[in-house]
Amino acid sequence: MVPMTQFPTYDYFVTCAAGLEPLLADELREMRCRSVRPQRSGVIFKGTIKDGYRVCLWSRFGSRVLLSLGEFEATNADKLYTGAHSIPWEEHVQPSGTIAIDSVGENEELRNTQFVNVRTKDAIVDRLRKLSGRRPSVDTENPDIRINVAIHNDRAKISLDLAGEPLHRRRYRTDGLQVLAPMKETLAAAMLTWAGWPRIAKEGGPFVDFMCGSGTLPIEAAMIAGDIAPGLLRRKWGFSRWLQHDKEAWDVLIDEAHNRQTKGLENLPPIIASDIDAKSVEIARRSLRRAELEKHITLSVQDLSVARPPKAKVSGLIALNPPYGKRMMESGQLPEVYEHLREALNAHWAGYRLAIITPDEKISESLELNPQHVHKVRNGPIEVEIITYFV
Known about the structure:
The chain is 35% helix and 23% strand. It is α/β, with parallel strands linked by helices and 391 residues long. The protein folds into two domains: 10-161, 2-Layer Sandwich (VC0802-like); 185-230 and 250-390, Rossmann fold. The strands form two sheets. It has an eight-stranded mixed β-sheet with strand order 2-3-1-4-8-7-5-6. Mean pLDDT is 93; it is low at 1-5 and 326-331.
């Protein structure tokens, strides 16, 4: 009997925004990753190259997928250099290729991330130049491989960034054309998951957002309900020019994702998005088009007071990212927005679940609703709460 081929396993660390670690850990377990353990701002697991690819393609909450290449003592610059130099870089990048290095953390001797980047680069360049007579160059925008260096106490861990650019960049947004302070895609996915949207969607419940802005929430809702891989629109990855890239494994995952999307879109529940601002709706329409979801999401310009529940057998979810900010809070505009929302909810949306992201701790009082769940997170630099209610 011929033994089964044993694929090598690696140690991974998937980074995420603080507060999303439990969601990410559950997601990785659903992908059948092994030895899943939440850490601060991320989750570690063990898996094959294909497992790492699957996380890149399917993770809705992760930011970077880091494959460990080595860990060693780094109490000073010389030990950092020696440890980095010992890694077989000839197995990862062409001598004439390009690299980019990012570093995080510090210790008593290594306090400057830029210095850590340069010292690590020197170690890589010196090793490859000694072996081949050629040396890679630095390209921070479009490197062949992106390398992450994490300094913690007296240790350094060097990893390959399989994602390349952060996973929240789903590629459905138009660069340079966005509403003010759009919601990060990973946070939108977390908000929907905390609100129970995956279950509601399976039951056929509608999704409604009548403050849709650039359309992030309805697009993420459609991708969850339609079983669409969040990385399916991306064409460039951190592993695309990696010397150990397994194109066959990646192609299998892509084919599988396309098949799942085709089946998922056949049973998509109603997804309704609107906004009173016509410019925001036009931006959202462009995002829908790029996401190839224009035919699956109903989008319109209208005030929330005229929005009505779509016909459905069960009640659904309303998810909102209402306008907020210091200027609005100081000018007294927010109470007016909340009053308008409260009147609309009371008049037409009884039985629906409501999820809101806001920095305003008094919103529940303004809406006259009792919170069911509260999650504290950050939306960029702003501390916010994601609150769910039953209307």
